[in-house]
Structures are given as structure tokens and as C-alpha cells.
Design goal:
This protein has 318 residues and is an alpha+beta fold. It has 12 helices and 12 strands. The protein folds into 2 domains: 201 residues, Jelly Rolls (Sandwich), CATH 2.60.120; 103 residues, Homeodomain-like (Arc Repressor Mutant, subunit A), CATH 1.10.10.60. Strand 7 and strand 8 form a beta hairpin. GO terms for molecular function: DNA-binding transcription factor activity; sequence-specific DNA binding.
């Protein structure tokens, strides 16, 4: 069933309890100096799936263990900064942050302008659905789900549109109240769309990366601005440059240098969208690009637009 707040919370403790009742127990900390919350909360209960519209109206940080459920947060406005297994992560409109069941996680900055569509999945149910959809018990939701989703391709746009269309019903609390069968079917469609997004054409993700590869991956996420060389990465992995290249191709699907470039571009693109005082040159330097022109060329290849265009769209100077 759908739900909404009966009255606006008057203090941070009350706001935290209201959200905890709908989603998860958590530790909430205002970080922007706001005296009181301006909480937005509406939810649609589909049984094993809960879809909600959530905004705090102030800058906050949240620590949560996500007991018994996975969560996908899709920013509608603003941005969401968190710390995942591989370091800092920022999601903006067109992306979604994935939080794993029973895993301590930190949302380091939920900005005051950020509202999200939050999709909560019962973990046991989603793992069974994942096995059923893929036709194998060799994987589970923890294996399939990445830390961040992109909704730029056809599958991504389709799933985001499905969530948005269900979110449009948050204003009608009783729409599916007497339709258990419909609610279950809708929940199944949400899960199937997510699995299809993460496993195109039913391709099951590769097994977990070997420790040597994972060590390099984690280091690149932790410090992408460092002037990494192939020799640096190989030394960290304890192997030769050639074997590291082969390992990355097998387990990651790209060369280490290409993987590092993608991390830098993601971080830089997020800065262009969310940091009002930075120039293109400053963003390029922050994330380890040797020049603004090289950064601009790489950004155009990945996102189809120049960094300066992103800044202009935000009403800022280059």
C-alpha cells in the first residue's frame, strides 16, 4: 500500500524515525547547519518492493546497514555522494546508487536539493527472482548488482521510466490497496527490469575478481588522480605488466589505463554538474588529466558533449 506523512516532522529525530519506518534504521547527521528538516516522503508498497520519493530538504549524511534489503537510489534532482567498496561515488540524474543488503554503507552527502526515487527490495525475494530470471543458481543479487547504475542506454532508460511511472502513483495512496496480485506482478516487473539492465541478454557476470586484480581496482578508485603508470599498477598487483593487462581484459573487460580513464571521467563529470566554482581546467587537473584539451576530448567521446557545454547548461562560466 502507498503511504505519506500525516504531518511534517518538526525535528531531525522525528524525521529520522519517519524514514526508518518506511525504509531502514539509520544514523542521520545534518551537515549543512539547517535547524530543521523539510522532509518529503511518499511510498508505494508493492510487497517485496517499496518505491518511495524521498528528500530531506537539507544537507545530511546517513549511515545504514541496509538490513534484509537492497536499495537503489535514483536522484531526480541534485546529487548523492556515498562511499562504496571501491571508494567515493557520486550519482546524479541519469544514474542510481546501489546499496547492498546487510552491508554498512555511508551516504556522505545527500545534498539539500536532492530528491530520490528509492527502490527497496527484500533481499531473499530478489535473490530468488534473480536465480529464476537468469535460470541459474550460480549467481545472486549481490553478484549481479553493480555499485552504480547508468540509465543512458535503452535498457537503462526503460527501467528508469518504469520506476518513474510507478512513482507517479505515489499521490494516490489507495490505488493498489486491494490488488495483491497486481502488486506482486508489478514487483516482478521491477525486478526483471533491474536484472535485465544488469545482465543484458541473460549474460551472467563473471565470478569475483582475483585478489591481485581487485587490489588494483580498489586502489584506482581510491586515488584516481594519482599519476599511475602501468609499472605502478603491476607492482601493486605483484605481477608483470603483461599479466596485469591480460588479467584486466579477462576480469574487468578493459585495459587498466582505460579503466582508470573511465573512473576519472565519472568523477570529473560529477564535478562539472555539482561544483559551481570550478573551471574545466581545474576539474581536469583535480582528476589527473594532463591537459584540459585531453580531458575535453575524452569527455566528448564518453558523454557526447564538451565539458564547457555541461558548465553552460548549469548556468556557470567556463
Amino acid at each position: 500500500m502507498a503511504g505519506r506523512m500525516r504531518a511534517a516532522p518538526k525535528d531531525w529525530g522525528q524525521a529520522s524515525r519517519v524514514v526508518a519506518q518506511a525504509y531502514f534504521p539509520h544514523e542521520l547527521r545534518p551537515v549543512g547547519g539547517a535547524n530543521e528538516p523539510r522532509l518529503t516522503l511518499r511510498t508505494l508498497d508493492l510487497g517485496p518492493v517499496l518505491i518511495g520519493h524521498v528528500g530531506w530538504g537539507a544537507d545530511v549524511a546517513i549511515e545504514c546497514d541496509y538490513p534484509g534489503a537492497y536499495e537503489v537510489n535514483l536522484p531526480i534532482t541534485g546529487h548523492l555522494e556515498s562511499r562504496g567498496r571501491f571508494g567515493a561515488l557520486t550519482s546524479v540524474v541519469g544514474q542510481g546508487t546501489v546499496f547492498r543488503a546487510d552491508t554498512p554503507s555511508l551516504i556522505s552527502h545527500w545534498d539539500a536539493t536532492c530528491t530520490v526515487l528509492g527502490v527497496k527490495f527484500d533481499s531473499t525475494w530478489l535473490e530468488v527472482e534473480t536465480e529464476r530470471i537468469l535460470g541459474t543458481d550460480r549467481v545472486n543479487a549481490r553478484t549481479v548488482l553493480p555499485e552504480q547504475l547508468s540509465f543512458e542506454d535503452r535498457r537503462g532508460r526503460a527501467w528508469r521510466q518504469l520506476i518513474s511511472s510507478l512513482g507517479a502513483n505515489l499521490h494516490d495512496p489507495d490505488l493498489f490497496a486491494d490488488s495483491e496480485l497486481v502488486r506482486r506482478q508489478l514487483a516482478g516487473a521491477v525486478a526483471a527490469g533491474l536484472v535485465d539492465l544488469c545482465c543484458p541478454d541473460g549474460r551472467v557476470p563473471a565470478p569475483a575478481q582475483p585478489r591481485t586484480i581487485r587490489r588494483v581496482v580498489e586502489a584506482l578508485h581510491d586515488d584516481p588522480a594519482r599519476a599511475w603508470t602501468a609499472a605502478d599498477m603491476a607492482a601493486l598487483a605483484g605481477t608483470s605488466v603483461r599479466r596485469l593487462q591480460e588479467g584486466f581484459q579477462q576480469w574487468v573487460g578493459s585495459a587498466p589505463s582505460h579503466y582508470l580513464l573511465d573512473i576519472r571521467l565519472q568523477r570529473a563529470h560529477a564535478d562539472l554538474l555539482t561544483s559551481p566554482t570550478l573551471s574545466v581546467a581545474e576539474v581536469a587537473a583535480t582528476w589527473g588529466f594532463s591537459s584540459a584539451s585531453r580531458f575535453a576530448a575524452a569527455h566528448r567521446r564518453k558523454y557526447g558533449s564538451a565539458p564547457s557545454d555541461v558548465l553552460r547548461q548549469g548556468g556557470r562560466t567556463v
